[in-house]
Design goal:
heterodimer; A: 194 residues; globular; B: 505 residues; alpha+beta; 4-stranded antiparallel beta sheet
Chain lengths: 194, 505
């Protein structure tokens, strides 16, 4: 696959003043922060949970992340190496991973893919592609899924992913490579050109 | 090959939009407010952290309230809710619904199937047990099992009180988990999977007019006769109990509730304001009764209805409103449908129980008047005059309150707080007094106030300005709104203005 993913990047960073006010506990600034970052957090949590049939957990995970972010905000160093969005996404990823590890993975089966073929024509192609990707990603372990999503959807660098998931840098790279290969193989078997 | 070259293209795999109100729920948790109001835990998964009573109480404090609501009971067989604030309801064991402001649903349980009439607004449904859902919407019939999904239907009324969304002629379905089958009246069906989203056009019916409610919405939303009958029977049973007997609910019998308490005030008296508040909550439904008649008979431009109803209550049981007489003048008087609609709606008024029980008879006049200047503007039950300070009387006795003429709309008063102005603007909008609603909203915004009040005032003001075609003012208010709010305002204004509103000039 050579095409670059059309990534939903994290929202533009919060301005310094609002960030400082949020760190000081200002309610209006905290609301601004929550509104700014809830969508990328939600997207990440949903992508982590939905492929294994736990899409209804996405809201809980998003709320948990937002609460944890707001409480830990005073510890965030704006002059540190991580952008605020990266810091937030790593919290979301770690939290989602820990939570979903406790769940028994329920990869989507072939019946889902077969059923998707019956969708109306006008929605067929886009929906089927999304469902097939979801099914393929759902077959990965939670950790591999997190590595793949953080890298190929959110474009976090390896160091940030390693820090977020408490993995060695080399482990991140190897798991990413294996995850990509597995998804490609699954999609190819479905007749989808990866 | 570099890493970038090896990257997977996952762009076709999109996440659905997050549920409405997520920001508020997260902030409530941060403040520790949600924990006191969340649904009880339901195994095996964690609860939704939706504020229930908190939302209702907050709405009441802001001038909004649950409209025609029935207190949610776990496993209750049937019910109906119209909400002006986000409300979580457990429709049956393992079936939950987050009902956004302005949405209306009714439901019944039929064995393992929960049948829902999704009449208006935005509701997110979540199934965790074996029960199936069969949902009738204006555009399609939905069936689902073990799914979490959102249904967005057009609002019958308007963008009032913040979170309501108005969609023109379309029902949107967004699936977060599980699968949902949507079957259109023509017979074609599609199955939606997690992340799937569809928008289905509502087929017009011969009686449809733009911005007009559907008859079934009015009647179905207003009436829950089965539940009402339960309350009436329970009251009778309570009165028949010998003195000293245990109240219902304390010995294993079901408590058939009515409205959640409005506040912590000591029950025992029903004030004029409480009755008026209960009636005001169904004013939008009463408006719909009139609109339906006006759609059939445009000459019914003005009418007066003198309603006499009895409020019957027993301690710890509930309260039932029974319409005794409707004196309807003019052409409306000949309409059985209007009479039935008014009766059903007034009997859906939810009032707190009287602490000591008793019966109150109330005279309550309504004046209806169609708007002259704008076909799209809502006709107005021009005034729902307050009853004259009824007090509870011993069970079985009667006290008739004298009738008062309709009260006029007061002007914004100097020194009023933003909360006061927000409440007044909401009331004006609910009564389709758009000019007044705009004036109050602008005054409230000028007075400062909390972010919540300001957000609400922006919504009300923008919609009111659109209704009376003062688009420059609508745009000015639109620019004050947050992005998500802007989208809702734009949709509602487009609907209200028939396409006359554009966000940018």
């Amino acid at each position: 696959m050579t095409a670059r993913a059309a990534v939903r990047r994290p929202a533009d960073e919060l301005d310094d003043l609002t960030l400082r006010r949020a760190q000081a506990g200002d309610p209006a600034a905290l609301r601004t922060l929550v509104e700014r970052y809830q969508r990328p957090i939600w997207d990440l949590c949903w992508r982590m949970a939905a492929p294994i049939g736990l899409g209804d957990r996405a809201e809980d995970l998003t709320q948990d992340t937002l609460v944890r972010v707001c409480r830990a905000l005073p510890t965030f160093d704006p002059r540190g190496p991580a952008r605020l969005s990266t810091w937030i996404l790593t919290i979301a990823a770690r939290l989602a991973l820990n939570e979903l590890r406790r769940q028994r993975p329920e990869p989507l089966g072939d019946e889902v893919i077969a059923a998707s073929a019956a969708t109306p024509r006008q929605h067929h192609e886009a929906r089927e592609a999304g469902e097939r990707i979801a099914a393929a990603v759902g077959r990965l372990t939670a950790e591999a899924r997190a590595v793949l999503i953080l890298r190929d959807v959110y474009e976090l660098d390896y160091e940030a992913i390693a820090a977020a998931l408490s993995l060695e840098l080399g482990t991140v790279k190897s798991r990413l490579a294996r995850a990509r290969a597995a998804v490609r193989a699954t999609l190819a078997a479905e007749g989808m050109t990866p | 090959m570099s890493d970038d070259d090896d990257r997977l293209d996952l762009s076709a795999w999109t996440a659905p939009p997050p549920p409405a109100g997520l920001t508020d729920r997260a902030l409530d948790r941060l403040d520790g407010r949600a924990s006191a109001h969340a649904l009880p835990d339901l195994p095996p998964r964690r609860r939704w952290r939706w504020a229930i009573a908190g939302a209702a109480l907050a709405a009441a404090a802001l001038g909004g309230a649950i409209v025609a609501s029935r207190a949610p009971t776990r496993g209750a067989g049937a019910g109906g809710v119209t909400a002006t604030a986000a409300t979580a309801v457990e429709l049956a064991d393992g079936v939950e619904a987050l009902i956004e402001a302005g949405a209306t649903i009714t439901w019944t349980t039929d064995g393992e199937v929960v049948r829902i009439a999704h009449l208006a607004g935005v509701v997110t449904y979540r199934q965790r047990g074996a029960r199936r859902l069969a949902i009738t919407t204006p555009a399609a019939t939905l069936s689902s099992a073990r799914a979490t999904f959102r249904v967005e239907a057009p609002m019958n009324r308007t963008l009032i009180a913040g979170a309501a969304v108005g969609l023109a002629g379309v029902v949107a379905i967004i699936v977060y988990d599980g699968s949902v089958e949507a079957k259109r009246p023509a017979g074609d069906a599609e199955t939606l999977r997690p992340g799937g989203e569809t928008r289905l056009a509502i087929a017009p019916t011969p009686t449809d007019r733009p911005d007009r409610p559907r008859p079934t919405a009015v009647v179905a939303a207003a009436v829950d006769r089965a539940r009402r009958a339960e309350v009436a029977q329970a009251i009778a049973a309570a009165r028949a109990r010998p003195a000293g007997a245990a109240p219902l609910g304390s010995a294993g019998a079901a408590v058939v509730g009515t409205a959640p308490p409005i506040d912590d005030a000591t029950p025992g008296e029903l004030t004029k304001d409480e009755i008026r508040a209960g009636v005001r909550e169904v004013i939008p439904l009463i408006t719909e009764c009139y609109e339906l008649e006006l759609a059939k008979d445009p000459t019914a431009r003005e009418a007066t209805v003198k309603a006499r109803f009895t409020i019957d209550s027993a301690a710890d049981v509930g309260t039932v409103v029974t319409v005794g007489d409707l004196a309807i003048d003019g052409r409306l008087g000949a309409s059985t449908e209007f009479r039935d609609c008014m009766t059903a709606t007034l009997e859906a008024v939810v009032l707190p129980p009287l602490g000591d029980g008793g019966t109150i008879e109330v005279n309550y006049p309504f004046v209806f008047r169609a708007s002259d200047d704008d076909e799209g503007e809502q006709p107005t039950p021009a005034a729902a005059a307050p009853p004259d300070a009824p007090r509870p009387t011993p069970a079985g006795s009667r006290a008739t309150a004298p009738q008062k003429p309709a009260d006029g709309a007061a002007k914004p008063t100097a020194g009023a707080t933003t909360a006061d102005l927000t409440s007044a603007a909401t009331e004006a909008a609910l009564n389709a007094q758009w000019g007044r609603a705009l004036e109050l909203a602008q005054a409230g915004l000028a007075a400062g106030g909390s972010a919540a009040d300001r957000s609400k005032l922006v919504n009300i003001g923008a919609l009111a300005a659109c209704r009376i075609r003062r688009y420059d003012e609508a745009r000015a208010l639109y620019r004050l709104a947050k992005p998500a709010q802007q989208k809702a305002i734009e949709q509602a204004c487009l609907q209200a203005s028939g396409g006359g509103f554009t966000p940018a000039q």
